C-alpha cells in the first residue's frame, strides 16, 4: 500500500468518525489492475476500501451535484485538474463552500488504460495526453492536504510525494502542445473540417457520458433531455449530433476547466477537447489569457459586462 | 390557430420599385394563420392605419404583421394602431422590407423573393407572440446635474425654472467651470465673467437649486425615475455655516502653491477661494498642501478666523440621495501639450496654451491683464499661434476637430492687437472652420482690421534661441518653408475628455466613444439622451463644443429631464427578461453580466425529497430591465427568455426561413 493511500484512509477514518463529514468521495481499487473507480463511503470502517494510484483518473467533483440540495457536508479527494472543478461548482453556486471539504492529493500523472493490451498482464502504461499537457498538477483549492500536496492557483511544477515520479513520467512535458490539435484543424479547408467533424459526429451514440462527468454541465435540466421541441433533437443522427456537440461546447464556453474528462469517458473517442480548446483559444484572444476555475474570486470573461467590451457587431 | 393579418406597404415607390408588393401580399395569404393579406401605398398614413384598424375588427384578428420600413421607424406607430383597435400592441410584428430589402437590392424578382421570406418569418413569429403589459413605476421629482460649468448651470436653472428641485454638483469647490477661466467670449467679445457670474449667483440663490460643491458621484444604483446616487462630500475643513468669507485666513496662510485656476501662472494659498467671484465664495483647505494637515504645525488660519469656522477634523461624508433624472455636464480638459515633443512638450516657458493666454489677458489674472510672457515678463510683440494642437491629429490619437479653437484663436489675435497695437499675430492653420452665427464675420475682421496673418501649414518645430522662439513651419499655399522669430507662442490646444470620464460612465452605466466622450443615444435624433433612460448629456462631455452650443444643449437636456419629471409615473419596458425558475440553476452569470443591475438572486422554497429546501434563482426587476438580452445568451441553462423575442419565437422564424 502506497503512502498516499495510507494517508487517505487515515484522514477519511478520522473525518467520518468525528462526524465532521457525512460522506466521503474517493477512489477504490477496481476489479482489474488498471481500474481505480470512484467510491462513496459514509462509515469510518469503509475507509479501508480507499485507494490511490495512477489509475484514479476520474474527476469526482461532478458527483457533488447529487448533494447540491442536501444538508450534509461531503468530503472528496481532488487532484490538481479535478480541483478546478470545485472552483467551477462554487462559482456556479451549485455547492455551498461550507458543505464541502476538499482534500488535495499530489498527482503522479494518470496512465492511459486504453493502451492496455492484455487485461491479465500488468505493464507500464503511457501517460494520458491530458497529463502530458497538464499545467495545474497541484490543487488550486483545498481544505486539507495529504501526501505532501501543495495548493497553487498558478500553473506550477508537480509537488508533494509524487513530484519526482510525475516529473519522470513527463507530467506537463507537452504543455506547449495544448492547442496543437486546434491549430491542425484550423489549418484544414472548410470542406476538410466538415468532413472531419462529420466523421466524428457520425460516431456519437448520445450516451451523454461527456455531459455527466463534466463539472461545468450543472444545469438542473439538460436541454437535450427536456421536452422542448424544435431547437434540439434527441435522435442520434449526424446533424443532430453535430448540433449537440456544438451546443455542449458553447454551453461550457468560458467555464470549461480543461480536466479532459469528457474526452476520456467518450466511448467513441470523439476529440471533444479539441472543440473546448478552440473556444478557450478564442476567449483568450478576445479577452486576454485566463484559466477558468483557478481563481474563486476571479471574474469569468463571458460572465461580465464592461462598457468597453468589443462591439464590432453593433 | 391565431388569426393573423398581413399588411404590405409600398412606401410610395421606396419599396414598390424593387418589390412586387401585390405579389408578396398574395403569397402571404397561404401562410399558416393568415386570414387577411393586403397591400397599400402608405401603411403608416392615416388611411393605412384606419384600414388596419377596420381589418382588426372585421376579421377579428389576434395579431398582425406589417411589411414596411424598419421597426425603428414605425414600430410605435403600428403598435399604437393596434392598441386603438383594442389589440395588445405587442401582437404586432414589423418586417423590414425597405432598409433590409428594397433599398439594398436592385433586382425586383429577387427583392420580391426575399420580402416573401422575411414576411413568412414574421408571420411565424407573430403566431407565437403573447400579449405583453407594461407596468408603471413612480418618479422621484428631483434632478441631479453633475458638473457646474456653464452647461450644468444652464441645465440646472432651466429645470429649476420648470418647477423641479435640482441638485447642482461640482467636484471643484466653486461652480463656473472652464468658462470662469476665460477672459472674453467670441464672437461678441463680452467679458466671460460678466455674463457667467450672474448665472452662477442665480443658480446659488434659486429656491429650487441646491448647490453641492466639492462633491463627487461615487455610485449610482436604481433606474430611470429613481436613481439612488451615492455622493461623496469632500472635507473642506471649513464650516460653511460659520464662515463669513472674510478672507483673513487666506491672507495669513503662509503656504503658497501654483494656482490651478490661473493655469499655474500665479500662486494661491493652501486655504483659498480660486477666484474672486467664486460661488460659494468661501475658502476651503487644500489638504495636500496645508501645513497643519500635513505636519500638524501651523494652524494660523484657525487662529485668525474670527468665527472659528476652521475645522481640521472634518471628514469626507457619504450621502445617498434619490433623483428621477440625471444631467451629465462634466465638460472637458484642455489637451496636454506635453505630447508634442516638437513644440517643446510644454517645457519651454513661453510656449503656452490658449487657456494660459486667457489668464494672462484677464484683468483679475496673475498679470492683471497685462500681456507678459511667463519666462521674463517681457511684453511680446511677435506672437505665433499654432492651431490643431491635439486636434485633427491621428498621430496623437485625436482625429476629431475641437471646434472652438479656430474662433478662440481669432479672438486672441483680435484682443492682442487691441491691447498692444504694435504687436503682430501669425496664425498657422490647417483649415479655418467658422460655422456659427457671426463667426465668419469675426474671422474676416481679425484678418482685415486686426492685421492677423494667417499662414496655411503645419509647424514642424519650435525651439529657443536666446530669448526668441524660432517657429519653423511650412506655408503650404506658397509651397515653401517659413521661419518666424517669435516672442510668444500660443498652442491652440484642443479639447480632451475628462481623464476620469470613463470611470463616471461606468458608474452611471452610460457609454462613451473610443476617446472618452459620452455617447448620445442617436447622433441626430437623440443628441442629448444617453442609452440609459433618465440620463442626459449637456455640454462638452459629449464632444468638443463652444459656449453657445453647450448652453443650447444644456437647455435641451433640461427639457428632457423636466419632461421626464413632469410625468406622474413611468411606463416600464414590456419586453423584458423573464427567468424560468424551474430551469434556473442559480449560477448568477446573468447577474454579473446585466448592464442595468436589474437581476438579483433570490431564494425560493421547494420540496425536495420530502423536505423543504431553499434554492437560489434569478429574479429580474421588471422596472430596471431594459430588454437588452445579455442575460438570455449568458444563461448556461436557457432559463432566461426575453419576452417578445423568446427562443420559441426565434426558432419559429428560423424554421420559417428554412421552409422556402
Automatic annotation (TrEMBL), chain A:
InterPro entries: 4Fe4S_Fe-S-bd (IPR017896), 4Fe4S_Fe_S_CS (IPR017900), Helical_ferredxn (IPR009051). Residues 195-225, 247-276 form the 4Fe-4S ferredoxin-type domain. It comes from the Bacteria. The keyword Metal-binding applies. Keywords: Iron, Iron-sulfur, Metal-binding. The keyword Cytoplasm does not apply. This is 4Fe-4S dicluster domain-containing protein. It comes from Heliobacterium chlorum.
UniProtKB/TrEMBL annotation, chain B:
This is CoB--CoM heterodisulfide reductase iron-sulfur subunit A family protein. The keyword 4Fe-4S applies. It comes from the Bacteria. Keywords: 4Fe-4S, FAD, Flavoprotein, Iron, Iron-sulfur, Metal-binding, Oxidoreductase. PANTHER family: COB--COM HETERODISULFIDE REDUCTASE IRON-SULFUR SUBUNIT A, FERREDOXIN:COB-COM HETERODISULFIDE REDUCTASE SUBUNIT A. Its cofactor is FAD. Coiled coil: none annotated. Belongs to the HdrA family. The keyword 4Fe-4S applies. Gene3D superfamilies: 3.30.70.20, 3.30.70.3270, FAD/NAD(P)-binding domain, NAD(P)-binding Rossmann-like Domain. Residues 234-264, 281-315, 575-604, 615-645 form the 4Fe-4S ferredoxin-type domain.
Amino acid at each position: 500500500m502506497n503512502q498516499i493511500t495510507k494517508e487517505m484512509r487515515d484522514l477519511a477514518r478520522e473525518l467520518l468518525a468525528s462526524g465532521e463529514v457525512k460522506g466521503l468521495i474517493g477512489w477504490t481499487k477496481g476489479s482489474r489492475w488498471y481500474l481505480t473507480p470512484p467510491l462513496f463511503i459514509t462509515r469510518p470502517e469503509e475507509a479501508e476500501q480507499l485507494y490511490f494510484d495512477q489509475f484514479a483518473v476520474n474527476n469526482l467533483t461532478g458527483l457533488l451535484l447529487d448533494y447540491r440540495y442536501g444538508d450534509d457536508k461531503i468530503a472528496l479527494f481532488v487532484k490538481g485538474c479535478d480541483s478546478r472543478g470545485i472552483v467551477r461548482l462554487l462559482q456556479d453556486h451549485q455547492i455551498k463552500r461550507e458543505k464541502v471539504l476538499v482534500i488535495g492529493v499530489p498527482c503522479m500523472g494518470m496512465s492511459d488504460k486504453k493502451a492496455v493490451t492484455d487485461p491479465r498482464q500488468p505493464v507500464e502504461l503511457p501517460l494520458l495526453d491530458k497529463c502530458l499537457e497538464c499545467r495545474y498538477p497541484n490543487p488550486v483549492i483545498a481544505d486539507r492536504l495529504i501526501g505532501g500536496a501543495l495548493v497553487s492557483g498558478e500553473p506550477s511544477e508537480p509537488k508533494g510525494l509524487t513530484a519526482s515520479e510525475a516529473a519522470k513520467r513527463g507530467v506537463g512535458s507537452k504543455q506547449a502542445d495544448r492547442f496543437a490539435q486546434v491549430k491542425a484543424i484550423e489549418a484544414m479547408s472548410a470542406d476538410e473540417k466538415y468532413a472531419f467533424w462529420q466523421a466524428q459526429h457520425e460516431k456519437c451514440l448520445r450516451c451523454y457520458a461527456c455531459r455527466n462527468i463534466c463539472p461545468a454541465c450543472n444545469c438542473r435540466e439538460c436541454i437535450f433531455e427536456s421536452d422542448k421541441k424544435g431547437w434540439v433533437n434527441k435522435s442520434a443522427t449526424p446533424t443532430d449530433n453535430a448540433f449537440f456537440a456544438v451546443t455542449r461546447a458553447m454551453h461550457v464556453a468560458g467555464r470549461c476547466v480543461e480536466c479532459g474528462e469528457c474526452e476520456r469517458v467518450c466511448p467513441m473517442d470523439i476529440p471533444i477537447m479539441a472543440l473546448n480548446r478552440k473556444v478557450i483559444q478564442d476567449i483568450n484572444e478576445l479577452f486576454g489569457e485566463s484559466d477558468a476555475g483557478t481563481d474563486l474570486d476571479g471574474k469569468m470573461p463571458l460572465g461580465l459586462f464592461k462598457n468597453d467590451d468589443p462591439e464590432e457587431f453593433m | 390557430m391565431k388569426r393573423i393579418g398581413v399588411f404590405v406597404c409600398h412606401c410610395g415607390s421606396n419599396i414598390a420599385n424593387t418589390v412586387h408588393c401585390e405579389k408578396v401580399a398574395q403569397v402571404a395569404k397561404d401562410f399558416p394563420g393568415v386570414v387577411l393579406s393586403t397591400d397599400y401605398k402608405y401603411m403608416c398614413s392615416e388611411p393605412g392605419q384606419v384600414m388596419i384598424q377596420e381589418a382588426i375588427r372585421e376579421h377579428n384578428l389576434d395579431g398582425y404583421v406589417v411589411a414596411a420600413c424598419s421597426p425603428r421607424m414605425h414600430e410605435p406607430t403600428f403598435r399604437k394602431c393596434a392598441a386603438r383597435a383594442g389589440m395588445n400592441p405587442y401582437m404586432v410584428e414589423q418586417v423590414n422590407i425597405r432598409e433590409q430589402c428594397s433599398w439594398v437590392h436592385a433586382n425586383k424578382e429577387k427583392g420580391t423573393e426575399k420580402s416573401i421570406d422575411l414576411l413568412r418569418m414574421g408571420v411565424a413569429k407573430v403566431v407565437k407572440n403573447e400579449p405583453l403589459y407594461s407596468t408603471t413605476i413612480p418618479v422621484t421629482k428631483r434632478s441631479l446635474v453633475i458638473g457646474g460649468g456653464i452647461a450644468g448651470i444652464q441645465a440646472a436653472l432651466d429645470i429649476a425654472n420648470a418647477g423641479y428641485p435640482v441638485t447642482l454638483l461640482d467636484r471643484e469647490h466653486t461652480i463656473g467651470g472652464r468658462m470662469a477661466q476665460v477672459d472674453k467670449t467670441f464672437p461678441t467679445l463680452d467679458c466671460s465673467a460678466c455674463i457667467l457670474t450672474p448665472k452662477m449667483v442665480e443658480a446659488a440663490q434659486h429656491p429650487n437649486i441646491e448647490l453641492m460643491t466639492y462633491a463627487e458621484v461615487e455610485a449610482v444604483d436604481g433606474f430611470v425615475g429613481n436613481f439612488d446616487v451615492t455622493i461623496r462630500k469632500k472635507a473642506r475643513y471649513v464650516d460653511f455655516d460659520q464662515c463669513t468669507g472674510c478672507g483673513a485666513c487666506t491672507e495669513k496662510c503662509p503656504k503658497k502653491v501654483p494656482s490651478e485656476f490661473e493655469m499655474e501662472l500665479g500662486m494661491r494659498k493652501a486655504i483659498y477661494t480660486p477666484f474672486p467671484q467664486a460661488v460659494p465664495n468661501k475658502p476651503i483647505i487644500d489638504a495636500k498642501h496645508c501645513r497643519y494637515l500635513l505636519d500638524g504645525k501651523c494652524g494660523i488660519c484657525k487662529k485668525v478666523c474670527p468665527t472659528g469656522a476652521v475645522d481640521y477634523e472634518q471628514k469626507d461624508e457619504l450621502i445617498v440621495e434619490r433623483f428621477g433624472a440625471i444631467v451629465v455636464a462634466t465638460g472637458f480638459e484642455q489637451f496636454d501639450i506635453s505630447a508634442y515633443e516638437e513644440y517643446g512638450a510644454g517645457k519651454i516657458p513661453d510656449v503656452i496654451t490658449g487657456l494660459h493666454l486667457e489668464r494672462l489677458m484677464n484683468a483679475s489674472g496673475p498679470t492683471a491683464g497685462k500681456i507678459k510672457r511667463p519666462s521674463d515678463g517681457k511684453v511680446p510683440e511677435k506672437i505665433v499661434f499654432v492651431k490643431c494642437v491635439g486636434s485633427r491629429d491621428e498621430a496623437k490619437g485625436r482625429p476629431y476637430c475641437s471646434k472652438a479653437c479656430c474662433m478662440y484663436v481669432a479672438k486672441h489675435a483680435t484682443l492682442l492687437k487691441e491691447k498692444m497695437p504694435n504687436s503682430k499675430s501669425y496664425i498657422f492653420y490647417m483649415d479655418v472652420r467658422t460655422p456659427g452665427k457671426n463667426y465668419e464675420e469675426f474671422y474676416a475682421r481679425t484678418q482685415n482690421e486686426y492685421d492677423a496673418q494667417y499662414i496655411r501649414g503645419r509647424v514642424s518645430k519650435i525651439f529657443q534661441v536666446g530669448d526668441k522662439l524660432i517657429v519653423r513651419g511650412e506655408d503650404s499655399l506658397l509651397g515653401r518653408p517659413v521661419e518666424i522669430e517669435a516672442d510668444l507662442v500660443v498652442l491652440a490646444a484642443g479639447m480632451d475628455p475628462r481623464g476620469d470620464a470613463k470611470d463616471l460612465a461606468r458608474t452611471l452605466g452610460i457609454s462613451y466613444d473610443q476617446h472618452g466622450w459620452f455617447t448620445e443615444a442617436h447622433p441626430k435624433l437623440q443628441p442629448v439622451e444617453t442609452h440609459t433612460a433618465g440620463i442626459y448629456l449637456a455640454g462638452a462631455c459629449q464632444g468638443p463644443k463652444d459656449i453657445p452650443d453647450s448652453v443650447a444643449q444644456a437647455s435641451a437636456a433640461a427639457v428632457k429631464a423636466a419632461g421626464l419629471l413632469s410625468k406622474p409615473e413611468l411606463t416600464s419596458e414590456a419586453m423584458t427578461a423573464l427567468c424560468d425558475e424551474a430551469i434556473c440553476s442559480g449560477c448568477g452569470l446573468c447577474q454579473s453580466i446585466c448592464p442595468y443591475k436589474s437581476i438579483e438572486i433570490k431564494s425560493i422554497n421547494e420540496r425536495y425529497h420530502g423536505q423543504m429546501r431553499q434554492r437560489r434563482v434569478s429574479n429580474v426587476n421588471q422596472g430596471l430591465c431594459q430588454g437588452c438580452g445579455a442575460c438570455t445568451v449568458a444563461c448556461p441553462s436557457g432559463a432566461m427568455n426575453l419576452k417578445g423575442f423568446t427562443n420559441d419565437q426565434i426558432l419559429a422564424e428560423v424554421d420559417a426561413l428554412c421552409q422556402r
